[in-house]
Protein 1
Amino acid sequence: MSDTAELRLGRPPAQLVGGWELGLLVLMAILFAGGALINPAFFLSGDAFHAILRDTARYAVVAVGMTFVIINKDLDLSVGSTNGLVGVAFSILFAPQFNDWGPIGATIFCLVLGTFIGLINGVLVTILKVPSFIATLTMLLIGRGIILGLTGGRSIGYAVKGRDYPWFFQLGETNALGFNNQIPIALVIVIIGAIVLAKTRWGYETFATGGNEQAAIYAGIPTRWVRIRAYLLSSLCATVAGLMAITQDKGVTAQAGLSSELIVIAAVIIGGASILGGRGRVIGACLGAMLTVVIDKVLREGWPTTRIVQIDGQDVEVSAIAQLPVGAVPALLGALLLLAVLVEPYVLRRRLVGRFWAWLRKKEPPLIIEATGIAIEGVQTKGTMASDKALTARGLGKFLARRDALAIILAVVLWLVGVWLRPDYWWNLQNSFAILLNYTELALLAVGLSYVIACGDIDLSVGAVLALAGAATAFAMKVMGFDPMIAILMGLLAGTAAGLINALITIGFNLPSFIATLGMFYIARGLAAWIVAGKQLTGFPESFNLLGRKVGDILDHFGIDVGSGTLRTISEAVSVQTLWMIVIAIIAGIILAYTPFGQMIYATGGNRRAADYAGINTKRVRFISLMFSALCATMAGIIYTAFFRSFNPTAGQFRELDAIAAVIIGGGSIFGGYGTMIGALAGAAVITLIRALLQLNIILPGGGSFVMPQHWVNVFTGLILIVAVLIDIWLRQANILAGLRVRFARFIRAKSEPEHA
Amino acid sequence: MPEELKIDSATTPLIEMRHISKAFGAVRALHDVDLRLYPGEIMGLVGDNSAGKSTLMKILTGAYSRDSGDVLVGGAPTHFKSPHESRAAGIEMIYQDFALCGNMDVGQNIFLGRWPRKGFFVDRKTMYSEADVVLKRLKVDVNSVYQRVESLSGGRQQSVAIARAISFDPRVVVLDEPTANLSVMATERLLETMLELKKHGVAQIIISHRLQDIFAVGDRVMVLKRGENVGERHITHTTEQEVLEIIVSGKREKAA
């Protein structure tokens, strides 16, 4: 009976592979041919093919887990640092100079560590409802901080001890059959992953969860467990890949797995998965990994060049390998990611290939499936309890009911803690000046970001755009020899171009802002490193440096004397950038709080659909906000360059985390619709003060002193961001404290009632 | 027809809700509401916005817990804590927003969350052939069980949602505003489907603002106002005008 049914129904659609995978294979062949044309010595050797397969193996393993996560409509940015952290953990346990464990014990520890990281990610994202990109980005940076903290930036090697355990380290070596053992390991994992995703209930549950989580819940699918499971898979896959790297390298560097999340996410997306969830295949992701590795290799391997050099009047031919400078590879991979996210919604879903083919044959083109959402998007009505309280509260209660009260109180308390710990340092004018400068940079970013976050979007690229703008300005002045005004203009141009791309991808192509700005995060930082690679960018004209000077210096520069009173003291403590930031913040604050445009921002973030229906051009509002955020980051970058009188490509690193944390602590909601300028400024003050306190040189009773290393400070900032988001979601919005109070009151009443009766 | 119904009311109702009350904080959503549903009957549940229709149905399916009152299914008292428990008792609710996964195909959606298994794998042969049987039984025209749901029109999506509900072999189907998002043609087809279901002996409760739909297929209509029963009529004994008047200006009328 079922056989006849099968006949009547026709052949069911293929699950494991589709036409897209075939296209990827063709594209890869073309790329390989291109590589062979540029560098035949490398690409036409069997070694190249083998090396590509070997490197693909590790990325493909991580991509298997990532496919599950992305189909669930989540994202796991932490795989790169999990990958590295596992390597470091294994090395520290295994290396004879440290703990000298056996490989089995160290491996087991690593698997436990991977499970633990996956569990944290999963619980944060599902049960605690932190948006996945925030939770895992924080895990990424915490992981990186721990790696640097544990290794101190040095590599650990144990090639000698490794020889005692050939059965383990052989796993990363070429075997008797002539290929690397990592390839069959990856193949097994990919095949298992592909079958589980396409043919079992686990896979079906994943597709249902990503397609329409509400429907999946109605259908009795335990979606929380499905999502946690995917994070566990992803984290364990990253662990296995980390161990594979260990067996190959017999050591680890502090850079292990650095930005490999970019390659893996790009791979999964190129493989046909949708960043909007519900679509993807493991085989596609694996081919995507290979394609990304090929591109990576083509970019990194470089091409042979010959130069004629004159030595002692004789022409000597020198062969060299021309390579792309540092930063170019992540920049191009970031651009690749941005292109890739367009593939599924705009190529696959619209059947571009099929329509083109039909057009070529002059046939009727297949229908476009417009995936208009079936589910009604979760109705967002937030913070009702807190708002109610604000309406009835009086006096101090009214202040406490404000969403930004926490930040203001914290800023004051932290400052007092600083005074209490190190009065000598805290009261010193020079040091206050340093803190104020740190504050200025962060506050400027937070001002722009508070617009974006109030709109319900996010900008992960502010730190990178800061670096890009600084690099562009420095480059224009020193290398291209422009005068400061034009250089500043070029910096502004570079930064706003980055903002324009963010806005175009987010609004023009209707994709989530986190993916657009994540791509920009890599592109802008990569470009900054690329621009300044190998150049000494210092010694700018003094008229430019004045942008980053104290008011006093400017007065001196123009020969104005204000005597030596209070005015002089103030002019020594306040710098141009602080004044500039205050001007921007006041204007932005007034616009946000008192103009129709500000109300439009809140409406857009509160309920975009309602705002659309009300005739607000939400696209324009979000576009302007993203551009404004990039503009603020750009100004911060130019000021950075002026202040340090030089440019360093690490400018603004980790600043995106600080700025997001500042806005959230200051009363913004990660889901949009809230945030004030005063809150953002106070939040920035909190972050700055926490950083200053963590970096304080604390004088111990014994006369010694203690300073926390920078890596651990970054770990703490990551934790602060997570705590801030959790406080926002659970205390401000879900108001669990009030819930507990009600329950407690009921409990007391229930206890006291029998006595009354 | 009316005589039949009167005889029915002497038999055990399929569903009996007695003295249901529910408050959300200070808001009284339902107060002492009664509801009876007999086998093979289509009952319209009408009332203004915030009359408590959806709340009553969510209490029936266990999506909400009641503050007081009893729910009897087939004469036996029940205490459903979630829609899954009421589903086991043969009660299915079809949500206004269809609750389907657009990225999956018709067959996968009909068996959402309970895909048949063969060893480790999903048994696609059984799944698709059974899905096809259910669709045929409902006489809905979906081209293929392999079609992705997002490529279907609103009416067809509704059909898939109903097919999914039917595949559980329910005794009672609750439809919450099923025609709200449908075109005229699709509404016609949905009403036909409801009559088809009735032929199979499935009792249905339809929540709707559109009285003409209820008068087209319903046997009985019950009116709620501000969380109270204000009227109950047999369709054959009433007019749309009368029901409308009850909705607007009905007073609590409690069967003695």
Note: The longest strand of chain B covers residues 27-37.
Protein 2
Amino acid sequence: MAAERPITDDRHLDGNALAGPLSMLFVPDIATSTGRCGSCGRGDLLARAPLYAQAPGQVLRCRHCGNVVLRLVSAPDMFWLDLPHGSGLAIPHTAPADVSRDVSRGS
Amino acid sequence: MTAPETVRPTRDGPRARPAWRVARLAADRRENARTRTLVLEVPGWPGHLPGQHVDVRLTAEDGYTATRSYSMSAPADGERVEITVQRVPDGEVSPYLTEDLPVGAEIEILGPVGGWFVWRPAPAPTLLIAGGAGIVPIMAMGRAWLGTGDRAQDGAGRDGAARGGAGAMRVIYSLRSPDLLCYRDDLDALAAAGAPVLYAYTRRPAPGGHRPAGRLTREEIVEHGFAADQGPACFVCGPTGFVEAVAAALIDLGHDPARVRTERFGPSGG
């Protein structure tokens, strides 16, 4: 079991910011998927996990233990994606972000 | 890297898949000295939900590309997409978008993306809390609320009145000083429609304002927000430190963590 290092810094974004690049790889809206941390085993919505985007790649960490859950590097010719330590994704068939519902423009 | 535009049937109806599209700058609005709203025309745009964002990609003549995420500031309106960009000093992308990109020019956008930080009309009340440029997706939600109509529902309070199809709304907007204010007219329209807006200036108050400059307090969130037992949906957007503090205060006040949705932006932007 990895050491508990809850995320407390103010340098991270949310996993929600990965929704764009991951939409190039996955058909459902991946940000509303649940990620399971390979280190501590706990799950959380990807959209809520702390994302470190100031590295060459984008690094998503577990909100509970601080370990890396997902890494994505967008190179000019390919994507590199890894889910270290046996991290997993539970991806719903139907994404909640259903843009077919009419939301009319404000008056 | 162009993905075909596809609309897949799902149990809830079609969901538009995000794709890179060419966007033409049709018009712009200067929100303040460092902030510009870009009104983009995007052929084939499938629509979006308030709170979603787009990734903007700029490509230099030598092929170098830079991509940044920007929230949309207005609800879906055909093929029109509005984003608001605040200039980050020494930023790589934002100074070009706020100062240099001419009307008529084309950029590439990927979207709509993000299915988490989105607002949908629902009977429960909504509390929107913005810090600085975090007002952008918050404004999209407020404008969508304005668009839900003005049929008052039973049980509406003296303020934060419910509208047809949507519960009451209240807004808290924390910003450094009045010169950085965005969307004044539409925030006034929100207040006039029954969604009160608290302006919490942190460094310099508005002339004639009663609130001294200072950070948004927990007491102000209690006073201006909704009680936890009213089950409001809470949306918090701003710099990471601001979001951490506000979300922690809301949860400490008894709000259901699952009803507190956050979006942070931080030092990697620009």
Note: Confidence is low (pLDDT under 50) at residues 95-107 of chain A.
Protein 3
Amino acid sequence: MSTSNKLNNKYSWIFMAAIASALLLFGGLRDSGPRSQQDRIDAITSQLACPTCQGESVYVSRASAAEAIRAEVARQVGSGLRTDDETIAYIEQRFGSKVLLLPRSTGIDSLVWALPIAALICGAAALGVVFRKWRTADDGDPSADDSALVDAAMASDS
Amino acid sequence: MLSEKKVKPVAPIAATVVGIVLVCLLWVLVGAKPNPSDNADSPLLGQPAPAVVTTTLEDKPFDLSRRKGSWVVFNFFNSTCVPCRIEHPELLTFAQNQLSTDNPAELYTVINDDDDTAVLAFFAENKGDWQKIRDNDGAIAVGFGVAKVPETWIIDPNGYVRLRIAGQLSEGLLDEQMSILKVQFGS
């Protein structure tokens, strides 16, 4: 393959990657219009854990406690007196923070978010140090002492 | 012989750090003490009670804010719940004992996800002439953060939540706690 073909091929890939990224960005950020009350109820209840189930959200659970919370969320959304965050805070004030499927990013709960990132950074740094050390140790160049030993051995053989 | 390069002991240092962290976690675990109290925690304790506006089984209006001046006890109940049925004699005793106190507490059954007929049948069979209030759509239960019945809550004469007992009442617990609260906050 000639150099100009290689370049053309490279630019094609970059162009395609740029188009794909732009489309993903557009799809992710585009405004889908005003949300209906049901959209808001679904979004709020998806963030709340059913207090009597294991790992189910209020949105999917059919338990009586989950249905009661769903009805309360619907009442609050219908009344228009509270924002989504305020409605979630209202439920949290009643049932405690265990009712939140997504832990808060403040206080002790923030450790849930911070610790994995800290562990990732520390792990990456440790791997970087170790890889660098391996590369330095395996550079293939003998030290002056090693060369002298080999030279001496060769001289004694001859 | 080839010369030996000095290698820093990374593995022992890492193992020591991990070991120290594990020992610290174990220390925290061993040192943790379970809550010895019968009382359950709630963000509402010490806070004004949630608004409760509903009707009784006799279709009379009920508004908690109009009960100020009295100690109010809410017992969240369902006639199909076994612990609710088992603790019922405790409530009968409590209601009876309160009659002989200076400022008797008002006991209310909050009907949780149950129908009126079943509740009336239960009380006809097992007695208990206090008021039973409806909890339409579970609004009162959510207001108090009640997920499972039975639960018993005590609200002081100023309308502040003072106690939450989650689960079945043990013998004499409600009388004992009410006496303590009346001393602590005044009857």
Note: Residues 10-31 of chain B form the longest helix (22 residues).
